[in-house]
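2024-03-11 09:14:02 DEBUG pipeline.ingest accepted 1 chain
2024-03-11 09:14:02 DEBUG pipeline.ingest length=171
2024-03-11 09:14:03 DEBUG pipeline.predict start
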Amino acid sequence: MLPQNFDEVIVVGEHHSGAGYRYLHVPKILGTTTDALIKRDVATLAAESDALFYLCDDHALFLDALAALRAVDEPWDILCPARWGDHPEQGRIPLNMGIQDGYIGGHAGIYQRHVVARQPWTTMPHHPNWDVLATQEQHRAGAWILSAPAVRILDITPETKPWQQTQIMAT
């Protein structure tokens, strides 16, 4: 059982059934970021919640994530959580989630359903920088974006060196 007590937890992709979540099998189709968009839309259609918390499979929630989410008292359409990683020499360090550059990184995000209903994920640009382009589209459509540093996620793949800056490709 998942300790967070979310109203519903849906796992989409190539995983397995388990206690505490509903599993929807969606195999890899293209092997690109488009697969992530498809999985987000599948989860959105399956969920009943008004707020949707998307989390990629190479990340985990800090144990206080749901409590921190419920404590947000400002209006929002999209929340950007803080992202952390375990560096081999520096210990736990903050990682880029894009908010300082005006976007919500694809690693995780919390969206009011009306934002995604207005423009589903698979209608967004199919591009390696889909998260940047999607945030721009959502902002242009009027979405209120808020940083939520107390809502924390952990990158669980230190072997990929997530602390190294990646360059955003020209769009």
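2024-03-11 09:14:41 DEBUG pipeline.report Residues 84 and 94 are 4 Å apart (CA to CA).
2024-03-11 09:14:41 DEBUG pipeline.predict end
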